[in-house]
């Protein structure tokens, strides 16, 4: 599978998740929340545990075989703003990124007192990075992630 095809699919899947158009499904692992998106012979599954601290994994399958994955760990600070406001900001920042058809590479987006920053290295074959959301220069959201193609 070409990296360009994989990137296009992951962006489409994440866009659908961010818009609430992907569907929640019964989890493959007990206690997890899972979201599924399908297109052609490709399947994207985001599976995570927790709320204020989340541990998750995104998997892409082609014809049932796992071809790509990403693990992530998210920590939310005590929020000086309503949780719904942070979630809404995160959704808008991600949708703007996907509108630009960008998956990896440094990315920053700001709206009023909130700033989204993603710094990473590598490509879809092998990558790692960190996302922070700052509220008045105070980190209120941190996600560490890594992943790549499986062989």
Taking pLDDT < 50 over at least 5 consecutive residues as the criterion, the unreliable ranges are none
Kindly report how far apart the N and C termini lie. Answer: 11 Å
Task: Give the overall pLDDT as a whole number.
Answer: 92
Cα-based radius of gyration, to the nearest Å:
15 Å
User: Strand arrangement, largest sheet?
Assistant: 1-2-3-4-5-9-8-7-6
What is the share of helical residues? Answer: 10-25%
* General form: globular
Counting structural domains, the number is 1
Class derived from helix and strand content: alpha+beta
Question: Which sheet architecture does the biggest sheet show?
Answer: 9 strands, antiparallel
> How many helical stretches?
2
Tell how many strands the DSSP assignment holds.
9
The SSE order reads HEEEEEHEEEE
Strand content: over 45%
Core attributes:
151 residues; alpha+beta; 2 helices; 9 strands; globular
What does this structure look like?
The chain is an alpha+beta fold. It has one domain. The chain is 22% helix and 52% strand. The protein has a nine-stranded antiparallel beta sheet with strand order 1-2-3-4-5-9-8-7-6, covered by helices on one side. The model has no long low-confidence stretch (mean pLDDT 92). Strand 3 and strand 4 form a beta hairpin. It has two helices and nine strands, in the order H-E-E-E-E-E-H-E-E-E-E.
